[in-house]
Amino acid sequence: MSTTGLPQGAVPKLERPGPLRDRVYEALLELITTRALQPGRHLVESELAGHLGVSRQPVREALQRLSTEGWVDLRPAQGAFVHEPTEEEADQLLTVRTLLEAEAARLAA
Q1: Whose CA is closest to 91, among 79, 99, 82, 103?
Q2: What is the Cα–Cα distance from 54 to 31, expressed in whole angstroms?
Q3: Are 40 and 73 in contact (CB under 8 A)?
Q4: Residue 2 pLDDT greater than 80, yes or no
Q5: How confident is the model at residue 16, as a pLDDT?
Q6: What is the pTM of this model?
Q7: What are phi and psi of 36, to 5 degrees?
Q8: Pairwise CA distance, residues 81 & 34, whole Å
Q9: What domains can be seen in the chain, in order of their start residue?
Q10: What residues have CB less than 8 Å from 83, skipping those under 6 apart?
């Protein structure tokens, strides 16, 4: 018996929601991937924080992570912007897609 009077293991551990920065990251990533935030859009920390109902710190941390992963461009003295794929990146993506579709067709046949 524990000090609560319940047998050990009878009370399930409560799952804590993930860190706020992770939830902000996921929300921003969804806004970017669904194109609610268009490529090239300036991302203002205070505006994002206000829309998400959080302070600027988790937004700043999420933007840093999104930058590391290539979703956001951080420009010195200008701020954060949704990444706009270059022509070279688009060409690479189309090349990979062509290869994947060809392989999918081969496997289906």
Answers
A1: 99
A2: 16
A3: no
A4: no
A5: 54
A6: 0.69
A7: -65, -30
A8: 16
A9: 20-84 (1.10.10.10)
A10: 39, 70, 71, 72, 73
